[in-house]
Design a protein that fits this description.
Chains A, B: This is Glutathione S-transferase rho. Chains A, B: Pfam families: GST_C_3 (PF14497), GST_N_3 (PF13417). The structure is a homodimer. Chain A has ten helices and four strands. By secondary structure, chain A is an alpha+beta fold. The first copy, chain A, folds into two domains: about 80 residues, Glutaredoxin (3-Layer(aba) Sandwich), CATH 3.40.30; about 120 residues, Glutathione S-transferase Yfyf (Class Pi), Chain A, domain 2 (Up-down Bundle), CATH 1.20.1050. The longest helix of chain A is centred in the middle third of the chain and has 25 residues. The first copy, chain A, is globular, with a radius of gyration of 18 Å. The N and C termini of chain A lie far apart (about 45 Å). At the A-B interface, strand 4, helix 3, helix 4 and helix 6 of A face strand 4, helix 3, helix 4 and helix 6 of B.
Chain lengths: ~230, ~230
């Protein structure tokens, strides 16, 4: 029981979900957690700011150690609980190289997804340009084709960095789930669709599925035409 | 001698510099390397694309293992050469937590620096807005104050995550150096200025200093008023 850990999180946030999957994979259930609302701006509340001066979720604490950045928390948990639960960084140099490489390419994927689905959220109305959104969409398509190719090369039934589930899946899967929640077509992106289907029922992922997605299983259609 | 390693890099790129510092810290001198020109678009050359489908620098290969993302390469080098050169991830949970946390906050710092100094490079002329650049500058100031506070709290003569040089310095220092190269005032940001002065002559950093900065020691003044 991880009673000395506290996670402040928001539903549907890929960064929060990464940390929750890592906690599950390391058998660290039973941590203290509090679901906060982005809509109500609770990520800017004093409770969050006390742990995280950026006013962002996740905010995560283990004892006195504060590790708010989602990738930082994933590395920390894997390192501190190396022999507990599933090993998330492979030992073999080749598998390890691919795990790290895909993990960090996952940040480019996440950024490009955000450039489309959060465009109106981040760009004030008077600064929006159809040309910019069009370019962001093209960049996302290029990015998605790259990942289709990566997964295809690894072969059917593979995880994102090979035959073993790893930190690359912990960090990349939530973004892939966001893509499909926002309407990405599994017909147009069949390899990503297969990867999504392979992982969505994994216990660590199912246990941490964004609760508000369960209420709205239809999702959105922002990415339908991508 | 690291003859089984190849690095394609560009001068003044913080991501490239991170990998070069990590190589120096791990005593991996003697690797093959090739300096390419961003101005001449050599990062989009076939030579790069063969290793890195994104057409980005750094592009890095160790034997058959390709690790292009700079953070991925840093983790890979530290893990594969753990007992060689300087240890870059501390063992103590508290120091490790802070190392990871600052490392990944370093990505926010880098992004905010880029939002100001590369604004015209990334945003087509017809999409530029004074209001956007002003907001980016304000975000950078907020970010810089955060780091001033972090370093101040650790006390004079500290590295970015404590008393020991770590991967957090490997990844964050190049961004700090970019700030001063682009004119940041050490009078206005004295703690960052002290950190910069502390590290700039460290052998790993001096050995990998961007060559075109040596030719243009005056730098630019983009950030003079920040």
């Amino acid at each position: 029981m991880a009673k000395d850990m506290t996670l402040l999180w928001g539903s549907g946030s890929a960064p929060c979900w990464r940390v929750m999957i890592a906690l599950e994979e390391k058998n660290l259930q039973g941590y203290n957690h509090k679901l906060l609302s982005f809509d109500k701006m609770e990520h800017k509340s004093q409770e969050v700011l006390d742990i995280n001066p950026r006013g962002q979720l996740p905010s995560f604490k283990h004892g006195d150690n504060i590790v708010n950045e989602s990738y930082a928390a994933c590395f920390y948990l894997e390192s501190q609980f190396k022999s507990q639960g599933n090993r998330l960084i492979p030992d073999s140099p080749a598998e390890q190289a691919l795990t790290y490489q895909r993990m960090f390419e996952g940040l480019a994927l996440y950024e490009k997804v955000g450039g489309v689905i959060y465009y109106e959220y981040y760009v004030p109305e008077e600064e929006r340009h159809d040309s910019a959104l069009k370019r962001n969409k093209e960049a996302l398509v290029t990015e998605l084709k790259l990942w289709e190719g990566y997964l295809k090369k690894l072969g059917s039934g593979s995880f994102v960095a090979g035959k073993t589930f790893s930190l690359a899946d912990v960090t990349v899967f939530p973004t892939v789930a966001v893509l499909f929640q926002f309407g990405l077509s599994a017909e147009r992106y069949p390899v990503l669709g297969e990867y999504y289907a392979l992982l969505k029922d994994r216990p660590s992922i199912k246990a941490s599925w964004p609760p508000h997605w369960l209420e709205n299983t239809k999702g959105q259609d922002t990415l339908k035409e991508i």
